[in-house]
Structure of DeoR/GlpR transcriptional regulator:
Amino acid sequence: MRPHERQEKILIWIAQHGGGAVKELAQLLGVSEMTIRRDLRVLEQDHLLEQRMGAIDVKRSATELAFEVKRRLYQAEKDAIAKAALAVIEPGMTIGFCAGTTTWTIAHHLGGFRDLTFVTNSTNIALELQHQGWSQIILTGGNFRTPSDALVGPFAEYTAQHLHTDVLYLGVHGLDVDDGISTPNIQEAAIDRVFIRHTERVIVVMDPTKWGIKALAHIAGLEDIDTIITCDNPASRLYAAKAMQKGVRVVLAQPTGSKIKESEGRNA
């Protein structure tokens, strides 16, 4: 296992279980305690871990993980989702990106197209698009919110109301087949709803851990979603069947690089 893969597993374990236990992590990953301590130092130097009450924890803002931590989690899955998401893009489109690490990954992979315009409330996504060579980038403005580094609030919503996109890529904290998509933050839910009302096509992009989760703030029901792109695993296949019954198209990407599986509901 490569060091960055092992460090990702350490981040996931600490995020799920709390402060890292060196001995337990060493046994879990089949390496020495010295190797785990070295990985923890690297993650702390990268500002992905921090000391809390004498214990090591992932960097958070309130109860949410920081953007840089979330960006490092499930990287293979996010890369596969991003590559599948690019299939709908055509020259001349206006592309909307809601703030999030999976949507950021799409921006990171966005190359080989021409004449695209972008609308986003994410400073990170805007900077990544610029880094990839794009120039037609519109930021909504608004109040800057960490940990997602999203622009939110009345000004952001006002701007988004006056902008139309051909396709919207939307990351979520959770997707429940009956209750729809949600996020822990009320202000982000509000700006997401505005983006949804002003696009032709809504594509939810999420790793499979988001299935079945209901967060504090409701964004939209499945009737407002055209396509869900996630990764293929047993949970995804189970939930995909239920989502299809509600008329949603589901794309199951393969992190290993094998062919994308697609389940069809209504046309996207």
About this structure: The first strand starts at residue 49 and ends at 52. The chain has ten helices and 17 strands. The mean pLDDT is 87. The two ends are 38 Å apart (CA to CA).
